[in-house]
Amino acid sequence: MVVENIVDGGILYGLIAVGAGLATGLAGIGAGVGEQGIGAAVVGVVAEEPGFLGKGLFLMLLPETLIIFGLAVSLILMFAWTPFA
Amino acid sequence: MPVLRLPKFGKPVKYAYITGRVRAMKTKLIPHEMYQRMLGMEIPEITRYLEETQYKEEIDLMAKDHSGAELVEYATFANLAKTYRKLLRVSIDEPEFLILEYLRRWDIWNIKTILRGKFYGASDEEIMKYLVPAGELDQEFLEGLAKKEKIEEVIQAFDGTDYYEALTQYDGQMLSSVENALDKLYYFRMERAVGGTLSVGGGLLLKYVRKEIDVKNLVTLFRMNKAGIEASVIQENLLPGGKLHEELSRMAGQSYNEFVRGLEGYPFWGAISDVVAEGGSVSRIEARLRAYLVRYAWAISNYHPLSILPVLGYIVSKDTEVSNIRKIVRGKEAGLSAELIEEQVVS
Question: Would you call B18 and A52 a contact, using CB atoms and an 8 Å cutoff?
Answer without folding.
Answer: no
